[in-house]
Design brief:
The protein contains 11 helices and 12 strands. The chain is of the alpha+beta class. Helix 2 packs across helix 3 and helix 5 runs antiparallel to helix 6. The longest helix has 13 residues. The protein starts with 9 loop residues before the first helix and ends in a 16-residue tail after the last helix.
Length: 288
């Protein structure tokens, strides 16, 4: 792809320099009209030119993000797409496979950005990516924090919540096998007490069982006290939880029932083969 020209006219420079000097990374159409001091129509021409040259990116209707001069012509990448997507809803967080990719927990990169929010919105396009809106139940909307993304504060689920979310809804993580890989990679830097607190807060014994079984499967370094706590959180009921497709569709070569976590693993061994033992911490080789 041919790089965009980032040269500026006098009016365009006025907008970029004013926003940069003020430390602003975003502006509304009304602010730009006021800044230029002319007609709204003339300001719209400047805005459109700045968008075409890669200096401004529309976040939502009438709101724009500045791509700062120091970021150069290649600034309109995945990270800026997260900043743009973050303007779609409030409150929100970026989650599931999008958060996993941000933390390097998965090697799968898709052109879908998952925005988790209680606000009812339609899916939309942002650049070359598709934004998918996920409306969680109230007891699952937590576990996120502001992360600096090219100078913008973007709310992203933390590692523990990202792994739990992906296990809760594997289809938004690329499948059960990918959710297991995400857990394995995340667990090497887990705050296990935080993960257990999150699971207790959600209050789903079935989710705890799925989490516990997958943690064992990837051989995560789970402290004994946390394992005991999760065992208590599974509840005393005899209902069998499932990992994978629902009960009316048992897949061929499914792993089957696990007595420890009282879980029917409705997933073929082949799908989970690559994640087996992946959470084991690698020993550091000492030089003699």
């Amino acid at each position: 792809m041919e790089p965009r020209a980032r040269s500026l006219s006098t009016q365009e420079s006025k907008v970029v320099l004013a926003l940069t000097e003020r430390g602003r990374r975003e502006a509304t159409r009304a602010e730009i009209v006021d800044l230029l001091g002319g007609s709204a129509k003339a300001a719209d021409h400047v805005i459109e030119s700045l968008r075409r040259k890669g200096w401004l990116q529309r976040a939502t209707w009438g709101e724009y993000l500045l791509i700062p001069p120091e970021q150069g012509p290649d600034a309109l990448g995945n990270s800026n797409l997260l900043a743009i997507a973050s303007r779609i809803a409030d409150p929100y967080y970026i989650g599931f496979s999008t958060a996993a990719a941000h933390y390097g927990l998965t090697t799968q990169h898709r052109n879908v950005i998952f925005v988790v929010t209680p606000v009812r919105l339609r899916a939309r396009e942002v650049g070359e990516a598709r934004v998918r809106i996920v409306n969680p139940s109230a007891n699952k909307f937590f576990g996120f924090e502001p992360v600096d993304v090219l100078g913008y504060k973007v709310m992203i689920s933390d590692r523990e919540k990202t792994a739990i979310d992906c296990i809760d809804r594997p289809i938004l993580a690329g499948g059960v096998g990918e959710a297991a890989t995400i857990l394995a990679t995340a667990s090497r830097r887990f705050e296990w007490t935080k993960a257990a607190d999150y699971l207790e807060r959600i209050g789903s014994g079935a989710l705890v069982r799925r989490f516990g079984w997958l943690a064992d499967h990837v051989n995560a370094d789970m402290p004994a006290a946390i394992r005991e706590r999760l065992t208590r959180l599974t509840g005393s009921g005899s209902t069998r939880a499932r990992l994978g497709p629902p009960h009316y569709h048992t897949v061929q070569d499914a792993i089957g029932y696990d007595k420890t976590w009282r879980l029917f693993v409705n997933v073929p061994r082949e799908e989970l083969h690559g994640s087996a033992g992946l959470g084991r911490r690698k020993a550091v080789r000492k030089e003699s």
